[in-house]
Amino acid sequence: MHVEEVRKHLHAFQDDAGQGVSRKLDLEKEERLLNRMADLEPCDECESGLMELGEEYKRLRARLPELEKSDVRSHRKVLNKLLNHVHKVHKVVPQNYYIGVFMPLGLTFGMLIGLGFLENMVYGFTLGISIGIAIGAGLDAKSKKDGLTF
User: Fold this and answer.
1) Which of 19, 72, 110, 116 is deepest in the core (most CB within 10 A)?
2) What is the pLDDT of residues 14-55, one digit of tens each?
3) Are 60 and 71 within 8 A, CB to CB?
4) Rounded distance, CA 130 to CA 44, Å?
5) Does the global pTM surpass 0.85?
């Protein structure tokens, strides 16, 4: 199944589901992912993931108007499998991914610096968060410039 076919299933599901379900499942993010996947070199795992995602949209559409927690859980599982593949193999990440990764790391190191050298944890937190955000923003800008974000 190709990206265009999956996108058609996504749009049909969005039309039938309404805004509440679209927000709950974060279908805008999925649309951005599909748009980005159209530009990637196709691989077998991408094709199988897209096929699985298309089938999931069909299944969810048949279950409307009431989706159960198990339906949402299974959809997220299929989507996360595809997201992990795209991240690991194609190095494509969501927007602000690196800020989310480096800010807590900076906070941790800042706390250690604050306690060890500055004898005041607050200064360390501020320093660490600032460094983490700076590194994360730089990497996010680089990945956006290289076209590796969705």
Assistant:
1) 110
2) 888 778 888 888 888 888 888 888 887 878 888 888 889 888
3) yes
4) 41
5) no
